Every structure is written in C-alpha cells, then in structure tokens.
Amino acid sequence: MNGITDRAGERLKKVLEETGAPAEKAVRYQITNDGAELKIDVKDPLDLTFEFGDRTVLIVDSDTAESVAGRKLDYNEGSFSLA
User: Fold this and answer.
1) Among 53, 65, 62, residue whose Cα is nearest residue 16
2) pLDDT digits (tens, 9 = 90+) for 12-42
3) Interior/surface letters 35-54, b for 16+ CB within 10 angstroms, e for the rest
4) DSSP string across the chain
5) What Å distances lie between residue 26 and 13, 54, 60, CA to CA?
6) Could you give all domains of the chain from N- to C-terminal order, each with its CATH number?
7) pLDDT tens digit sequence for 40-54
8) What phi and psi values does residue 49 have, to the nearest 5 degrees?
9) Which of 8, 60, 63, 64 is 20 to 30 Å apart from 34, CA to CA?
10) Calpha distance 27→55 (Å, rounded)
C-alpha cells in the first residue's frame, strides 16, 4: 500500500474520534481469508503507518502492504476501497 486519499484519511480520523480511540490506536487494514478487514488496533513496531492531520489513522502489517503494493485506500459513498 502506498498511501491513503484525503477522503479515506478524513473518514478514518472521524471513526477514531467517534469511538474514543486513544492516540496509540489506529484503524488496521488487514487481508484475511474472507477478504479485507478494518478494525481498531494498537500499532506493532513493524507496521506501516499512515498519518492524516495530527494523528496516525491507518496501520498495515507488512504482508498486507506487500499484497496491495502500489494502491491507495480510498473512501467513497460509504465504503472503503483500494484505488
């Protein structure tokens, strides 16, 4: 993964604020057997991080980042997708 769009960053930050997630947590994007999963989680030292404004909003493990290399996380019409 090589980044996030402004729309995705805004939505991720809003989700973190609405859930009251502390600063050390962000939304984790992870590929699973059932597809992609988004959940609030604590950053691992080996994770890639993506910032929006003054906060880390997205964390991605190295295996997931490799499998979606060259793509950006986007948010449009109520859902996230890779562009």
Assistant:
1) 53
2) 999 999 999 999 999 999 998 888 899 999 9
3) eeeeeebeeeeebbebebee
4) --EE-HHHHHHHHHHHHHHT--TTEEEEEEEETTEEEEEEEEPPTTSEEEEETTEEEEEE-HHHHHHTTT-EEEEETTEEEE-
5) 9, 12, 10
6) 3-82 (2.60.300.12)
7) 999 999 999 999 999
8) -125, 150
9) 8
10) 11
Amino acid symbol at 38: L
Q: Report residue 41 as tokens.
A: 């989680």
Q: Report residue 24 as tokens.
A: 């050390």
Residues across the chain: 83
Q: How far apart are CA 46 and CA 59, in angstroms?
A: 10
